[in-house]
Design a protein that fits this description.
The radius of gyration is 26 Å and the shape is elongated. The protein has 268 residues and is an all-alpha fold. The chain has a domain at 1-130: Serine Threonine Protein Phosphatase 5, Tetratricopeptide repeat (Alpha Horseshoe), CATH 1.25.40. It has helices at 5-16, 32-36, 43-55, 59-72, 77-92, 96-109, 116-128, 139-154, 159-188, 192-205, 212-225, 229-242, 247-259.
Length: 268
């Protein structure tokens, strides 16, 4: 999953606001090696060198220089800004694990800072953008969900929480898709009880997602396959009550008719 361009622009604007205004711009700049070589520099010059690299899109070098601000001037107010700017630079460069480490370090040192919500948001986005397709392990997806929920819990009225809520819905839909993928595999291999457990997980844990109607239909299928028509009928009724015009309800109704040919269709 990726973050849309408008959100990336907003992130860049937000992190740029952390920079001190009115700082003298550095001209020209030397080679990358010269920038990274350990030379004691005053904090303002070092910070501005990093900011200039960030503005030029040299993200790896910018992150390294922001890290250098903290190494050379750990007790300066600039170091606090540099920590978060470093995390953003790594994030923008898609170095997500390093972005998470940098943002986490910022929170450990400055847990009550006014920019803490932004640090939590960077962590959540760094997990979110690593979410893979449903056929792969979903550990990162779970970490993304936990991080997004943490933003909503800590800062419910922040703009970051508003975006997190949207992403939580998308992540839940993704996780439900994984459960469906596994359940269908069990069905195709005749492991009906195992399939039933997966589909039940969807309707219990992800009932507001787009996968819920199919999960109910698959439960009808599975229960008929293992010889429990009463349970199949119950799930078909739930499907009809909640999704009366859905294609999965129509398929469930037809399936129940095949197993109970004497039943007369009475509506829905």
């Amino acid at each position: 999953m990726t973050v849309s361009k408008p959100i990336r622009v907003a992130l860049a604007a937000a992190v740029s606001s952390l920079a001190l205004t009115g700082c003298a711009s550095l001209g020209g700049g030397g080679s990358d090696n010269n920038d990274l070589a350990y030379v004691a520099r005053d904090v303002e010059s070092l910070y501005n060198a990093a900011k200039q690299r960030l503005d030029n899109g040299e993200l790896q070098l910018a992150a390294a220089l922001f890290d250098e601000v903290e190494r050379q001037h750990p007790y300066s107010p600039w170091a606090r800004r540099a920590q978060l700017m470093s995390a953003f630079s790594y994030y923008a460069d898609r170095e997500y694990n390093q972005a998470i480490r940098s943002a986490t370090r910022f929170l450990q040192i400055h847990p009550g800072n006014r920019d803490a919500p932004y640090a939590y948001y960077l962590i959540a986005l760094s997990y979110y953008e690593q979410i893979s397709d449903v056929e792969r392990d979903q550990a990162i997806t779970q970490q993304a969900l936990a991080s997004l929920n943490e933003i909503v819990r800590r800062y419910p009225d922040s703009p970051y929480a508003a975006d997190a809520r949207v992403k939580i819905d998308l992540v839940n839909d993704h996780l439900a898709g994984k459960e469906m993928e596994i359940g269908r595999f069990y069905q195709n291999t005749g492991q009906w009880l195992a399939a039933t457990l997966r589909f039940q997980n969807v309707i219990e844990d992800y009932q507001t997602t787009s996968h819920a109607p199919e999960a109910l239909y698959r439960l009808v299928e599975s229960n008929l396959a293992i010889g429990v028509p009463e349970e199949a009928q119950r799930y078909a009724a739930v499907l009809g009550a909640n999704y009366p015009g859905n294609e999965w309800y129509e398929r469930a109704f037809d399936l129940m008719e095949e197993h109970q040919p004497d039943r007369v269709r009475t509506g829905g």
